[in-house]
Write a structure and sequence with these properties.
single chain
Length: about 140
């Protein structure tokens, strides 16, 4: 069973409920989530304290969680038109996080709004479900 669509929807709910964070580390002092942290929380169902204090340790947790990485990779595919191809999981994680902070590359680069991020998460989930149902029907 593909859990990725539900992880993406749950991440959208976490950001909607707790807010979006784009500062240092992965979780803000007010409990708001970086996009990658929200996806991790949704996939792992737990958020270690390292997400607030130690980015390197947080990245190790992220890379060690299959559900989270599958969802981050799926979300990353929605950004590939605007970003160069990532060569490893570190680049995928970085690209997703930076996109939420800064937006698409280019001269008119603007950070996406929280609503835009939530919308993209939900559209990515819907696209995956449509793809899965099409594959099952074939």
């Amino acid at each position: 069973m593909n859990h990725t669509p539900q992880v993406l929807r749950d991440a959208a709910s976490l950001i909607n409920e707790h807010g979006l964070y784009t500062g240092e580390q992965f979780v803000g002092p007010d409990g708001s989530y970086d996009l990658v942290a929200a996806i991790y929380q949704a996939g792992a169902r737990i958020l270690p304290g390292a997400f607030r204090t130690d980015a390197a340790a947080a990245i190790a947790f992220i890379k060690g969680c299959k559900r989270a990485m599958d969802a981050i990779r799926a979300f990353y595919t929605t950004l590939q038109a605007a970003y160069p191809e990532a060569h490893d999981d570190d680049e995928v994680i970085d690209t997703v996080s930076v996109w939420a902070e800064k937006g698409d590359w280019g001269p008119d680069q603007q950070p996406p709004t929280t609503s835009e991020i939530i919308g993209r998460l939900l559209r990515a989930a819907e696209a995956l479900e449509t793809q899965d149902s099409t594959t099952l029907a074939a």
